[in-house]
Amino acid sequence: MQEFLNWTVDTIREDRLISPWLEEKKYEWVPLVSKSIINIFEKGCSVLIITDSERDWFLKYILTNLNSHKQNRPFLPFYNFKSFYKDLDDLKTEDDISFIKDMLNISFPNGYCFWYIGKSNDVRATLPKFTKNSFLWMFDEEIQDAFNLRTKDEALDMKLLQMYRLYDKTLSAALFAEINVEN
User: Fold this and answer.
1) For residues 73 and 140, what is the distance between their CA atoms, to the nearest angstrom?
2) Is 92 exposed, middle or buried (0-12, 13-18, 19+ CB in 10 A)?
3) Radius of gyration of the chain (CA)
4) Mean pLDDT value across residues 126-132
5) Is the pLDDT score of 1 beyond 60?
6) Which region holds residue 13: left if phi is over 0, alpha if psi is between -120 and 50, else beta?
7) I need a surface site. Which of 28, 89, 126, 133 has the fewest CB within 10 A?
8) Closest among 84, 54, 56, 61 to 168, alpha carbons compared
9) How many Cβ atoms sit within 10 Å of the Cβ of residue 107?
């Protein structure tokens, strides 16, 4: 079983579709991904994915590919949050958030976490930003415990695809005990 940081660097270097920029961010990437993997495989949490409206295409990409039969692994508990709550753009009050969290606690007795990809000031970011154990890919604001990116980056979409590729490889490696994400 390989140590996670070394495995990440090796994977970035060996995969011709992942650019070196991600290796430069390895100390930001590894702890966030490690926490996400532990939530899924050790704590049994389901992952509820939310994106801002400009990244809806990316949500579809993730959901199409993550549990594809081509993966040759068991299906993993990743869901489009909008399938549980369609009025996410209308979240206004603390009561709204409280009611949603109550519903999710009933629906997911083993726990849940959010994976949010998008602008930090988007209304859709509200719930994930204030929920423990969220996996955040945040744009245009430096937030602790988030992977921070810029919407003005011309290569943003390519970076998202590369990050997804690395995350997906990490899920498989952790599932098949090729890496230890806890160190």
Assistant:
1) 35
2) exposed
3) 16
4) 92
5) no
6) alpha
7) 89
8) 61
9) 12
